[in-house]
Amino acid sequence: MIPFNKPYLTGKEAHYMYDAVHTGKLSGNGKYTGLCHEFLKKKYGFGKCLLTTSCTDALEMAALLLDIKAGDEVIMPSYTFVSTANAFVLRGAHLVFVDSREDHPGMDEDKIEELITEKTKAIVPVHYAGVACDIDKIMTLATKYNLYVVEDAAQAIESFYTGKDGVKRALGSIGHLAAFSFHETKNIISGEGGMLAINDPQFMERAEILWEKGTNRSAFFRGEVDKYGWVDVGSSFLPSEIIAAFLWAQLENLQGIQEKRLEHWNQYYEGLNDWGAGKILDLPHIPEFATNNAHMFYLVCKEADQRDRIIEKLKEHKVHAVFHYLSLHKSPFYKDKHGDRTLEHADDYSECLLRLPLFYELKGEGIDRIINILKDAEL
Amino acid sequence: MIPFNKPYLTGKEAHYMYDAVHTGKLSGNGKYTGLCHEFLKKKYGFGKCLLTTSCTDALEMAALLLDIKAGDEVIMPSYTFVSTANAFVLRGAHLVFVDSREDHPGMDEDKIEELITEKTKAIVPVHYAGVACDIDKIMTLATKYNLYVVEDAAQAIESFYTGKDGVKRALGSIGHLAAFSFHETKNIISGEGGMLAINDPQFMERAEILWEKGTNRSAFFRGEVDKYGWVDVGSSFLPSEIIAAFLWAQLENLQGIQEKRLEHWNQYYEGLNDWGAGKILDLPHIPEFATNNAHMFYLVCKEADQRDRIIEKLKEHKVHAVFHYLSLHKSPFYKDKHGDRTLEHADDYSECLLRLPLFYELKGEGIDRIINILKDAEL
């Protein structure tokens, strides 16, 4: 049996968790939270980092920081996880969904401008499969129309974008705010977990307050105010030190984890390129401006039936492959609010995209087996 | 040095965490989440349980379930943690703060009715120090005015209330909804963590949907629907299995933990009763309808200066004692919204309540030392 995913432990997670206990602190914002913040900020050039209990919570913090209110419009892809949407719906926003690119499930950067109105407050690009959107295009629109950009970088750790200026920048370091996930299905994990990156300095102080339940507790412990209290809305966005200690063990092994995942990804690509590559079905496309963080290896089938046949065939051979999102503009919750704009590519990916197993402990023989099952199948 | 708190590990936390990894699941709603749900529901007679990443998140779920909207009024004590308040402010509620009882920091049940208006939607009693409010009085008001009751039972695990009918019921099993905390400062911990108890059946199905990010994923995995999608608002309220595994180790040892804490509490009480007890200062009051879960041992000083002197004296002897909440109606965030009603007892507790160290590994000698420091001090 080859599962779709298996969470990987480096071996030091429990050790760090016990160390956290010995410092006398298991609640949030302790030693390991600090280590993770410092590491991520320095490595990827974020303005400021705050760990959260999930990427969902990081997106909710972003919506609060942008003061999203009833009637505001937020532009995002339809082909994304519900949390991208819910975080803004919870603040009262109206969502304006953009179609996916033809060559990639990420949103079509050229279809954004026509959707901007006077009510538009933010654009939320999703770096699908950890592959960059053409973020320069989006930032240019944001500047032109005075909008904020929140990168949904849930899948995009250790992934980069090279703009027209030739500078290679980490995803999540470019938008005003960015949200990352450390869910067990991601490259770097803490079971459930996430992080908000804050790049626009105007949000840094308030982000810390929202994170600490609407109190100025952090400023108090730095000696900047002489008592702390309730100064703003907020929530308990910060994760336990148990989670941060776990995450720290993962981050220490980031390079090894990435090397292994890239090896698996390349084995899939090389093994399937001659066979698939637009004839039988499509393989992932990595634009020139993007790097590949090997978060996901997916196939884009020619039609829904073909995908069903592949899932079935793999299942017969005890391999678990899974599809991904269903277009949010057609969801029971939002279809009546979306109107009648069709989003053809988003629907295609909903029906035709299939994800193959990809995790650290997957063996080369396993990948070969999967490649051969696909090649032998009648599709 | 005697700290105010030290998180206690039973020794099996890491073992269960590794077991969770071996089941292939570290994200939420796995084996250990299920074990915790079942145990808590059965032991305390809750209608349904859902672990959350914090008590704050459980309160936010409650506010969503009650469909709290802009203009709704919610009645709660002023002497409470900011999360009791923020959860409802995030949905647009106006907070109506009630004073504390003279003999206890919990809210004065007899001062609620006069604050009920046509806009009132819910009452949120806080079982301060794990000691029950007179919850029958509050439930009677709720029935009379058609309101919901959300018990803030953050501190109230393994604590009970005996109503006029003579039936002893667990706190958190009485209101329509109830929120618990497993923050490291509580009796049973998971670093950060919480739980929503759902007692009113009308909320059970939707609670599960909100918990699963607004999807009907749980119903899908039970085979009740043939695909799942976005059907409602929601968030990532569920904690990692790492946290649930940790919590399970604690729950297995609940009895031992409670016995030890009660032993400590009783040692404080017996040691200080003759000395304090209304003369120099006040000791905790446990009403006849309530049990004591030994969550907290506090002193109520005669004045703020006396409290400062005690804190200072204990600090000289390397003992860390801390005060607690600041009245929310006087907070920078809410003072202008509260109006000019004075809440005398809430302010008294803000200025005069002092919490002494109380944790599993505290030694009897340590408590004796603290008692002697207090008795020797000039107050």
Strand order of the largest sheet of chain A: 1-9-8-5-4-2-3
* Shape type of chain A: globular
Distance between the termini of chain A: 22 Å
**Quaternary structure of the protein:** homodimer
The number of distinct β-strands of chain A equals: 11
Find the biggest chain interface. A-B, 62 and 62 residues
Q: Specify the CATH architecture of the largest domain in chain A.
A: 3-Layer(aba) Sandwich
Instruction: Tell me the major beta sheet of chain A.
Output: 7 strands, mixed
In short:
The first copy, chain A, has 379 residues and is α/β, with parallel strands linked by helices. In chain A, the strands form 3 sheets. Chain A has a 7-stranded mixed sheet, with helices on both faces.
What does this structure look like?
Two copies of one chain form a homodimer. The first copy, chain A, folds into two domains: 240 residues, 3-Layer(aba) Sandwich (Aspartate Aminotransferase, domain 2), CATH 3.40.640.10; 123 residues, Aspartate Aminotransferase, domain 1. Chain A has 13 helices and eleven strands. The first copy, chain A, has a seven-stranded mixed β-sheet, with helices on both faces. In chain A, strands 6-7 form a two-stranded antiparallel sheet. In chain A, strand 4, helix 5 and strand 5 form a beta-alpha-beta unit. In chain A, helix 2 packs across helix 8 and helix 3 crosses helix 6. The two termini of chain A are 22 Å apart. The model of chain A has no long low-confidence stretch (mean pLDDT 96). Chains A and B meet through helix 1, helix 3, helix 4 and helix 8 of A and helix 1, helix 3, helix 4 and helix 8 of B.
